[in-house]
Design goal:
Elements (H helix, E strand, L loop, with lengths): L1 E7 H7 L3 E2 L3 E10 L5 E5 L11 E15 L2 E4 L2 E2 L2 H4 L10 E2 L6 E2 L5 E7 L5 E2 L8
Antiparallel strand pairs: 1-10, 2-7, 3-4, 3-5, 5-6, 5-10, 5-11, 8-9
Length: 132
């Protein structure tokens, strides 16, 4: 089963790790309703937020898209770390790259859609890890 997880914003720019295609991931996610009324999952790795990250999505990254505007999504090879996206990584230049052509993709404040191939449906986090 493929599950789409939103990654980005201040949380990823603060201290998010790089995410690669084919990488095994275990995301803690916040479930919310989008403007279209459909349920969505947003990755969250910070404790102490007003909304707890009660969903876990584990599996292999099958696809990654950068969202540049309303409804516009473009595939990218990988998501650089938040540090690299902000220009503070000596090893990673933080640019986004087309997975097939290598073309650099320009944009500001990127948000990403990560497709995770799971072995089942998203699971609730164990009670011991829930935020109170």
């Amino acid at each position: 089963m493929d599950v789409i997880v939103e990654v980005g914003g201040w949380e990823h720019e603060c201290c998010g790790d790089a995410i690669e295609r084919n990488q095994l991931v275990d995301f803690r996610c916040i479930r919310y309703r989008g403007p279209d009324g459909r349920a969505r999952l947003a990755e969250s790795h910070h404790d102490g937020l007003d909304v707890p990250a009660e969903e876990r999505v584990s599996g292999r990254v099958a696809d990654i898209h950068v969202v540049g505007g309303p409804g516009a999504a473009r595939p990218v090879l990988r998501i650089p770390s938040g540090r690299a996206l902000r220009g503070f990584d000596d090893v990673d230049d933080g640019h986004l790259e087309d997975p097939w052509t290598g073309e650099v993709i320009e944009g500001e404040d990127p948000a990403f859609l990560v497709t995770v191939r799971t072995s089942g449906r998203p699971a609730r986090a164990p009670r011991s890890t829930r935020l109170t």
